[in-house]
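From the shared-data thread, chain only:
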Amino acid sequence: MPAEATSSDVFWLRDEVARPPRRNTPLSLARIIDAAITELDATGVDRLTMRRLAERLEVTSTALYWHVKTKEDLLDLALDHVVGEVPVPAPDVPPRAGLQKLLVGWYSAMVAHPWSPSLLGRPLLGPNVLTRTEYIQAKLVEDGLAGKDLAAVTHTLAGLVLGSAMADATWQRIDDPAAIAKVRAHILDSADRYPTLSTSGFVDAGWSDNELFALGLDRVLDQFLGTK
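Structure, as tokens:
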């Protein structure tokens, strides 16, 4: 996981002077971000380097640095791009339906890119994140929330999405049946210590992570919103 970010090293918090595009080159920031996401999906955050990315793009590292100063800048851009994969529902969609669609999509996008939850220690301030957070708050306001209640529910919903994505992506990275079987056996062999875990479906559940997230979100929304 990258080191904790400060305002001076977060891409969105710096005053950047846009560089003019270089002539006679097909390289663009959008192409760099796409390639970075492909590399991250294949190898993860720790193995991503500017050199490896340059090789994937068949350019020099110098050409990359014209567009992106550091690997950390690239991670901020890539994470915001993942969030941007989630469509923002139309404004006329009722609050509850709109929030369910957006938040389930946000969770699914992060789990589909299992490296992305590991970057949640960095401030989520990119335009795609802020656009979707604006939608969330607008729908909560439309449903009647304001002030401290609005802030609290926004915080709770964001925590549900980001926390669930981090936990589920972590488990999904354990792509080793033997390791999973060992976890299962450990809990079942300790049924006297974990009587509920060993019998509740925690070990051998027939439910997918997506199903559980959607149901959990539905239960949370039951507490805060109307039925529409």
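Residues 87-224 form a domain with the Tetracycline Repressor; domain 2 fold (CATH 1.10.357.10).
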